[in-house]
Amino acid sequence: MNCYKKESICTSILVCIFALYSFGQKNDNKDSLISFKIGELKAVWNLDNDVSRDSKKYESYSKIPPLYKLNAQDTVTELEYVKRVNDAKIKLLKQDIGLDAVGNYLQNFNPGFNTDDNLIYHFRYQVGLDWNILNDGFITNRYKQQILKNENTIIALTPKTKKNDGQEYVAISHKIIYSFNLHKIEVLEKRQQLMDDKISVANELYLLKHVSRINLLEIMQQQVDIGSMSQIYKSYNDELKLKMNVDSIPKDILPLFDVDFTKVIAKDSIKPISDSILKLEIENLKLAHKPWTDIKVNTQVRYNYYDLVNSAYSRNFMSAGIGVAVPIPFSIKANKNLIAEQSKLLAFQQKESAKALQTDLLNNFYEFRYKLKQYNNFFEKRRKYEELIRVERVKEKFGDLEFNPLTALGLLDEMLQVDIEMLDIQQQMYLQLLDIHSKAPDIEIASIIKPYKIDSLNMSSEKTNRSMYIWSEAQTKYEPSYIVEYLRLNKISTAILSLKKDQSNKAEAVTLIGKLNAKGIKVELLVGSNKLLTSNNPTAYFDSVTNGLDLKTLTAIHLDVEPHTMKDWASNKEEYLNKYVELLKTAKQYCSKNGLQLSVSIPVFYPENTLKDIYAQADNVYIMAYEHNDAEYIARKVQEEFAIDAKRTTIALRAKDFKNRNECEQLFTELNQLLNTNNFAMHDFETFVKLDELSVNHNQK
């Protein structure tokens, strides 16, 4: 190899070494710049990550009722204007006693001659008084006055609606939306600051090829969304500032609450027309159709003056008379029939209006509870983000290489988005309460709302108060340990045990009761013989059933007597119900004497007066809501029982009404939300075991 070639090779090597060195220098500079920018993102993270730990300030519950009231200068409603008009009419009718001043003048232009009859006259005039006594007169005006007075009474009794669901409804809804918008804007401002700090650094990292274009576009899209949402809320609030007194708006977040639906649907609060109003309307019908107001009776007094043709003197004299007009035919009976039919129509319309209102209120409550469920879901979602952010905080603190500030800041922004969603759902709940109040305005807001802690719904499955019927056949078929374990896994707090008619399984029952007590499961002894309705000595029967049992191991006697299953129930319903109530009184005395409670199982259709008697005796009432798995239907059917005492009411469901266990649990959840209850009973042990087996097989397929 010659010298030229050696020199060329050396030169090439030096060039390569220089190029590699330069490339390394550029990479080092780029890495340093990336590290610097990532450090800036970490600084943003360190500045803002404590947002996830900010505690929210909530207003007290006392701030809710004033939110639904207005201090408007013009508080006169349309009904009040109607009352003023009625008062003016009454005043006018009082002055009108049916008395009219009358007069007439008659001029004869060619009275005729050559007659001695002095009835021919040049002219005559008459003046006098007419008094209308019945139709359109003295008596009728008195009836009209009474009708107007009744209308004013009806106005006073009628619920004072929200100005036809117009001005006042809109004004209150504006107050609610304005209040929540204030806090949404605060959250958006936090998001905007976070995004402004993040996007400039993210853009530079994109230019350094350390952030993908997709990620950068996502950040930019978030920035646009934040700006748009903020503009919407601010524009709305800026417009409202010009129209309302914003100083009355609560400064902190309005509290989360629940609605006591049993008070909302209480009969006295949801009647659109009270019984008193109905009576007044029927009275007005009768007054308007008084049969003798169709009769016209008119009395008159006249002064008569005649300028006679064939007499040197004029003639004048006084006269009086009476006129009567009676319509043909004079239909008194038809009038009574018309009043009777119109009265029935009014009563029917009142009943239908009450039903429609109750359905509307139920729909509002269902929607409210659905929003409450959504709020709970977002609350759990926020807790998940809090945990993820906490993990990122730990990673950054200990210098974990997995820590990515862009990812961490993204989690922080997503958590703030959840905060806005929660505020929006809460706003919708307040608007649902406004709908409820507008349909039942006589209900005080303070009386139907109750404090609500988010954990009360989170832990609902842990706080369930579930019972289960266990028939004697199941006690023989399944081992006691299996039964106890099944109840424990299903969180059953009370077992309702039955004995065979011949009580041959009493020994097995005693063993099972002992094991149930050991696991903290309460036991009610079921007594189910319809013969008790006609028994002269029910106490003796109770003694025979409990003989050999330690009553201290029981919490209650559970009476499962069903008078509605008797063959002649339809014709002797009232008699059987009276006997049933008397049986309960005897059973209650027996239970009280032996330190036990009394529980009963009844269907959903017993009349209200009987229900009150039942609740007066029983400590716990189980409602057998069988054959239907529609939550709204069941809620309507049990509203009377829940209105009497929700805490002592348990809803019993049958396994055979469901295709699988998931359906059953879903109904439990829906009823929990609709009725705010955790008191459920499952009928019965063996059929629920089979339902679980079907569910397992279905899932495996």
What report would you give on this structure?
The protein has 701 residues and is α/β, with parallel strands linked by helices. The chain is 58% helix and 14% strand. An eight-stranded parallel beta barrel has the order 7-8-9-10-11-12-13-14, surrounded by seven helices. A four-stranded antiparallel beta sheet has the order 1-2-4-5, with no helix packed on it. Helix 9 (275-288) runs antiparallel to helix 10, helix 10 runs antiparallel to helix 11 (405-439) and helix 18 packs parallel to helix 19 (608-617). The longest helix is centred in the middle third of the chain and has 66 residues, at 332-397. It is flat and about 135 Å long. The relative contact order is 0.08. Residues 1-6, 9-28, 161-165 and 456-462 have low confidence and may be disordered.
Fold topology:
Layout: H1 3-48, H2 64-67, H3 78-95, E1 99-107, E2 121-132, H4 138-157, H5 167-207, H6 213-241, E3 257-259, H7 261-264, H8 267-270, H9 275-288, E4 296-308, E5 315-325, H10 332-397, H11 405-439, H12 445-448, E6 449-451, H13 454-458, E7 465-470, H14 472-477, H15 480-489, E8 492-498, H16 506-518, E9 522-527, H17 538-546, E10 556-559, H18 573-593, E11 597-602, H19 608-617, E12 620-624, H20 631-637, H21 639-645, E13 649-654, H22 661-675, E14 679-683, H23 685-700
Parallel strand pairs: 7-8, 7-14, 8-9, 9-10, 10-11, 11-12, 12-13, 13-14
Antiparallel strand pairs: 1-2, 2-4, 3-6, 4-5
Helix pairs in contact: 1-5, 1-11, 3-4, 4-9, 5-6, 5-11, 9-10, 10-11, 15-16, 18-19, 19-21, 20-22
